[in-house]
User: What shape does this take?
Amino acid sequence: MFGGLLSASWRFITIRVKICLVPSNPSLYLEHDGFGVTNPAHVGDIVVFPKTDSFADEIRIVPSRRECLSETRTSPRRSRRHDRSPRAAFTLIEVLVSIAVIAVLLSLLIPGLNKAYETARRVACASNLKQFGYGIASYAEANKERLPPSGFQPTRWGGRSASPSGQPDQMLIVRVADANMAYSDGIIWDGLGRLYYGGYLAPGKIFYCPSHRGKHPFSRYLKTWNSPRGELVSNYQYRGMGVGGSSLPRLFQIEPISTALAADGMRSKLDYNHRVGLNYLRADLGVSWLSDPGAELIRFLPEDEDDSDGSNTNSAWDFIDDSQQDTRTLP
Assistant: This one.
């Protein structure tokens, strides 16, 4: 019995035949690509493979003594797997249809992703206000229940504002650039900035809403936070008083307790962080979300901060106070 072993390379087909002589059955068994051929043969005969779609070759049987001999021949043709015809390419119509399907899927997916990202940013914003609440409570406990003061409050409360109602539109500034605008004690840290100055809050990102798209992102003030001087503007509006300014700035005397003490920026439309509503901190130190899909609140705000005045921001605070029944308390 004779056995055949085949192997192939990239550029050539190499046929390697092992020949073992069995006197009782002088025949040859050859195998190529799983195709077996048994031909009567004698030593010295020429055996020809049946012609296939890849090649036809011939092997000469050489004398042997029960040991396996080998003879190698090469054919300059490629193996069958490289001779196969290439698959048909996509047609232009198929490509265009695929692109259109992908575009439709993206148009459905992207708005959902954007909404999810905005929801996450809104939660992070509410967390910042919650931290302000903890800081205000600690500050009030250490300062006879008083709220952090601001140089933008009326002069009767120690502020430097010449207006009887103060400058509430500027109360998202947490550090003033000039000591002349500081509170009467001369400390340049203002409003919510007093919480950092007193060690009740960490500096930096907590003063900035992740949804802010205006002129005052955290990146703009990164170096200024590490400097002892320079104006710092946050993304959160501080109120520092009760409804209509009628209450003294003492935390536990403010009525009603749902009065907003701080909120997303309201100096101008560019400072309005979420577009469809805002988070705000109440006097009871809870945080609520005011939904404003009709953009009613933003109508009170000027286009640019250079056009802002106290009346715009006071109108926004009044709108929040009047909309208490439409708010949702956040955990």
